[in-house]
Every structure is written in C-alpha cells, then in structure tokens.
C-alpha cells in the first residue's frame, strides 16, 4: 500500500479544519505535514487541538516540511500573494475558492503565474456525491444533449460551476439577468450550532439567468439553505431525451420507451449491517453512478468532496491531469461577480472573454 499523501496548509480558519478532519479520518490516505497560523495565541490553541506542527509564515513551513502540495485556505484578499509565493518556490498549490477577490486581482494573478502554474482550486461541489451522481447521468448520454440546468444548491461560484458542468459550458460568454427577493424566515442553525431561541430574521433569495445562446442556466439560492432545517436544495437538468429532477431520473430508451427511476443512496450500517457507518454508493436503477472511494471513513458529503479534491491534487502534483484549474475558478467567480452586478443594476450584463479564457 502506498504511503499517505503529505500536504501543508496555509490558514487556520473554519474551512482549513475540513482538511484536518479529513486527514484525521483517513490517516492511511492523507497526512498534514504542517499548518501556517500567523497569530501566536491562535497558533498555540491550534497546535493543542490538532496535534500538528504550526508555523508562523509560509516561508517557515516550506523550509521545514516535505510535502506534495500546500493547501491555501486564507481570505480571498490574501490568497493571490500566498499563491505567488508558493509558485515562486516551485510548490504545487491547492487554493480554496475563490482564488482572488476582484476581476482585476484575478487577472493580475493569472498574468503573474501563467497558464502552466501548478495550481488547482478546491471547488468541491461537482464532487459531492449527489451532484457527482447527477453529473455522471447527465454525461452518460441518457438525457441526450442537455440544454437547461436549474441549480438551487450553493452560492455564487459554487452554484455557477454546477450550472456550467451540467450544461457542458467551458468559457463561452453569457447574457446574465438577475433579481433578489427578501422575506422573513425563522432563524435556523449556523456554523456555531442550533439557535438559542426563536427569532425571525430576513432571508435574501437571489435568482439569475445565464443565457449561453443555445443553453440556459437558472441560478436560485438563499444563504439559509446551507444550514436551514426548512430550506432544501433543488436541482433540475433537462435534455432532449430526459431529465433529472432532484433524485428522480426520466429518460427514453428509444422514442417510444420511457424509463423512470431514482438515484438511490446505499449506506452501510443500517439494520443489522456491521460494515460501519458510511455512504457506499449511489445507484441509478442497477447502474453505479457514484462509488465512495474513501469508505469506511465517516465523512459528510462535503468532506467526501474535499477528500476527492485532495486525492486529485496529489495526482496533479505528481504530474497527472488537472481537475479544476485556476482559469475555471476565475471564470466562475467572474460570472458570480457579474451576477451580483446584474442583480444590483436590474440590467442585463454580458460577460467578456478574459485573459484566462483567451
């Protein structure tokens, strides 16, 4: 069996802890070689909590560790400088989303590191089990050519990458229209847990249309969906020969033979099963459209997706193919910025070809 992949982390925030939890759950696959936490007080607490080497700067980390790559999990305003430092040192980098804050900063980052930079971005949503299964069905040809995708599952660039992937869109330009709607909602849980009392708060829903000419993406999201007990994700993908509606799949075996089936999650640990407690696979009828390669680790869907990013990054750092490039990440964030502009202005906004897609 091959040795665990060693990687470093720059950043000690909430998102960085996902990578640490994954390494703790899958020690045979991943090992955290060290973490950069700049605050001395926070560094000591971090060291005690995670029992990993902690450093005060990226330079110190690189001088001390032997790693295949470094995860960059810092605010988007800081990420470009860290990426440039790692690029100059010849260290492959897996950056959290998005890689920069503004269009100008993304263009400058891309210009400074070039298209051949050993950088990938940890966009996990296409690798979440449910979405990965749906993408597998959409890509199988069962639906025919896909022309419509309605995604209500994630915010901004996360939702947009799903739209692009389902529609088979690369860097084609789009005409974007959008609006927002505010409504009351009973406050639900957040990053810190369940609410302490009943409270009515304001919820903002964003709806946008991405018109690619012959394909249409529809974005619909409210930030409450990530934690809310009463707001669920929704997804509809339509092609000329079928559709996916959340977990329901309809398609034509031939023009007069319709098939209706379900995406079904298969778990270990139910009833008398003693294999453990984890997701095993997702089936569409009798076809396996997703297999959990990280079983029997007890990981949530989002953690399984991030583990997939880590595994693919290890392959990329060793000379293998990319999986979500800096160019793609810039494009999705750019479209997200234009969506916000369209919502704010009430006007149709048309994307332009950028340096990373020229």
Describe this structure in words.
This protein is of the alpha/beta class. The protein is globular, with a radius of gyration of 21 Å. An 11-stranded mixed β-sheet has the order 16-15-14-13-12-11-7-10-9-8-17. It has a 6-stranded parallel β-sheet with strand order 3-2-1-4-5-6, with helices on both faces. The chain is built from 9 helices and 17 strands. The model has no long low-confidence stretch (mean pLDDT 96).
What's this entry about, in short?
The chain is an alpha/beta fold and 358 residues long.
Question: What would the average pLDDT be, to the nearest integer?
Answer: 96
Proportion of strand residues? 25-35%
- Indicate the radius of gyration in whole angstroms: 21 Å
* Straight-line distance between termini: 43 Å
Share of helix, binned = 25-40%
Name a few traits of the molecule.
6-stranded parallel beta sheet; 11-stranded mixed beta sheet; alpha/beta; single chain; 9 helices; globular; 358 residues; 30% helix
Topology:
Blueprint (H helix, E strand, L loop, with lengths): L4 E6 L5 H10 L4 E7 L3 H11 L3 E2 L2 H7 L4 E4 L6 H10 L4 E3 L7 H11 L5 E3 L7 H11 L6 E7 L3 H12 L7 E12 L13 E12 L4 E7 L11 E6 L2 E4 L2 E7 L2 E12 L9 E7 L2 E5 L9 H17 L8 H20 L3 E2 L8
Parallel strand pairs: 1-2, 1-4, 2-3, 4-5, 5-6, 7-10
Antiparallel strand pairs: 7-11, 8-9, 8-17, 9-10, 11-12, 12-13, 13-14, 14-15, 15-16
